[in-house]
Protein: Iron complex outermembrane recepter protein
Amino acid sequence: MILSTNYVERLFFASDFKYQSLSNTLKSLVKSMFFLLMLVAYSLTATGQATKTISGTVTDNEGTAIPGVTVSAKGGAGVTTDAEGKFTLQIPEAVTYLTFSFVGYATQDVQVPASANITVMLQESASQLDEIVIIGSHASGRTVLETPVPVDIIDLKELYKTTPQISISQILNYVAPSFSSNAQSIQDGTDHIDPASLRGMGVDQVLVLLNGKRLHQTSLVNFQVGPGRGQVGTDLNQIPVSAISKIEILRDGAAAQYGSDAIAGVINIILKETTGVVEVTATTGAYFTGDESLKQQDKNYDGQQFLTTFNYGIPLNDKGGFINFSGSIEDRKRTNRATDYEGSIFRDYNATDGNGNLLYDVTQFSKDATDDNALAYFQANNLTGADITDAELVRRGTTRRDYTMYVGQAQLRDAKGYFNAVLPINENFEFYAFGGIGFRQGRSSGYSRLPSNPSRYLPELYKDGFLPHINSKISDKNFAVGIRGKSGEWNVDFSNIYGSNQFLFIIDQSINFSQLTASQTSFDAGGHAFSQNTTNFDLSRKFDILKGLNIAFGAEHRYENFKIIAGEEASWRNYGLDANNQPTVFLRTPTTDENGDIAVNTAIRPGGSQVFPGFQSAVNQYRNSYAFYGDVELDVTEKWLLGAAIRYENYSDFGGTTNYKAVTRYKLGSNWTARASFNTGFRAPSLHQVYFQTTTTQLVNGTLSEVGIFSNTSKVAQILGLPKLKAEQSQGFTGGVTGTFLDNFSLSLDYFLIKVKDRIVFTDAISGDPNGTPSQQQIYNLLLQANASVAQFFVNAIDTKTQGVDAVLSYTNKIGAGSLKVDLAATFSQTKLDGKVKVPATFTGNENFFFPKSSQTILENISPVQKQNLILTYSLKKWSFFLRNVRFGKVIDPNIYDDDNNYMTFQPKVITDLSIGYNITKGVQVTVGSNNLLDIYPSKVDKVKYPGGYDDGRFRYQNAASQFGYNGRFLFARLNLTL
Structure:
């Protein structure tokens, strides 16, 4: 049966979103995939490839059959053994080796036999220390035990069958202690893209690779108070889980090898290469929690999620060529952990007569009226602004539940398609290509605009107030091509990878107050886009000097482009200005003065779309960079390795930088290795940080001024004496040991220290005071020269020091007829401000503008500084059992503070995951389980001590800080089909 794109769109994307559909983009995706499939089909018929069928049995060293073993061949099929340890697969004639891998056993390559049947005996292994890694070294064939830097390997294709999490960022958050990521709420665009970091450092200080090639960043800058504030990260969730074979995490600075951003480490995502097998998964689940918020909403669950994925590979010829396709479609509903609003909803000027008619018309004073006229009206009707919420709820027939905000995960829907292909050209070279495209729609809420909030209330359009929404339209694509092979004794790789991300904002259930009743309620607020093209040429060769000398060198060129897409006029303009640029659209509401007499409160009606004003000015900026690197590794003896790397990189906008790295490794016997590295690194300021700007118009001290975020190259920045941005510079050290002991145990223990100089931060709102200190008066006067009253910038303002310990202990053994694997991993890290805040002379004595206490808290404590996990995996014939406990360390939320400006600390908590899987028949597995089985929540906000943070029931849990979220128990079921 053939499904039309219209049917697919209706099936998966039908919603109440009030913006343009994805029909055209989906059609383009379907047409492209169809064309590619036709090309592959033609290739198959043209080559007339020869294949053969191999059958066999996999056992342990005692002859016991092992079910669930992955059997694969590059360019050939990939299958798993059945309950009796048997398998059958078809492979091209040219394939000479099969790879057998299974948790708890050493991965084994076996030569394809002349006969059609084979028996393979796997050896138990306490770890994955014998697995080959790609990152961390330009020398091929290094295992985890042999590499001089710490590398974690996450076998995602196996892990995804058992883990409750369905997105890459959340899977890594629960399996890798050094990794941190959580979905955000009430954070504008960050609600739709999860920021991710390594070792408690910045989200822009980790480099992400795809098949070893640089992956582009998003176009989103995280501006709200939360993880990665003022930073730009990479969206890991743009890639379907079904496309990924494994993920390597290099926990060491590697800018000398890979370039900018690799200060904290590198994440390398490796795509699948298997063919001949169809893999389909369907996962469904929801949050079943006993939290008070659900009870007040008369619900038993929320946040329903459904994800379906597929993967299928096709051999392209009889020489190992293949193309592997993957895709996914996800539908995620929102959650809400805000309880019934406890604050004031209605005041006396909102009163109705019981039939829904307003008794008082204070909106008559929204334009051209005087304070005297308004005061007379208020006095005549004895309006004081008194709270009448309880009585008015009865008159309107509503409850407090009807005015609850949405505080929880955003609603998301997305569709993604990826491919990975290799086609041999001749005996020495092969062509390769990979990439994909994804589309995401998101919907999140802002703060409620209640009738009791007079400057945000217009009863003619929203009688009961309104809850504005931010709708996102995110498109992400990347495509890589290359040729690699062997020319004489040299390994050659020439590649190009292009990637782009576009983020558009549609605001609905909103209003531009400066237009009053003439305002529309939905706005195209514009957005931003980022694209990157990277070209690499790499050479490497091994020489027979001492025990082996590997030399690698190469060059890179990178082009980057950042755009701001202007929104429609109504999304940003203030229409309430007269010919002299003075405000005319005011709101006057009653209040009482210090004597208890009725008085007038005057406020300007703001312009632009409420909750998210549109982008006023378009931006289109680009830059180029080029780099040269050299890398050498020498095995001095069988035990001792020395290595060094150097890289020069030059950017068209801020100049050049040279960085280096030195490593050593020494084998302490046959099972243990000591290793150490020292590196310098850098992070170029992102184009976003250099050129992002957005402004709004506000009334300050009776004068309209431009307020907002200004680029570092703007006139405002020049007047204030702010220097242009420069690259962050780092020095890093890592040292540790790794090895196996007592046959069944493995250990990895590493200390790290990272110092960053001239770290880029996002300033606080900078403003002066005409009556303050001489310095404050100077700032005030300088801002007036630039027609600004409040401004924010990106500046190189601080130095930081991050240090800690990573530890991983693993145990594997046979327990009864099954296999048990235990992993205990932990990260203990701490980032601290190193030295004084660096400010221009203009701001001497006002350093708080650049790095206030809240910013220091974000830097040091907004994500857990400690995280430990204990994972138990047990396989028994057709059954699999998975139990995990993760301890998330304490965090501090800078949005929640008491009267003495002391922030609230959220104490450590342990989250338990459990799943049970059963192989119904060959190729059919069912898994059920839970994330946060015990329904654990962060510490509740004390509404007496932290009333502002509690916000009348809106934020009962941490909102800005990133621990483990606050959605509660998630129950799921998953069906895995292998055909």
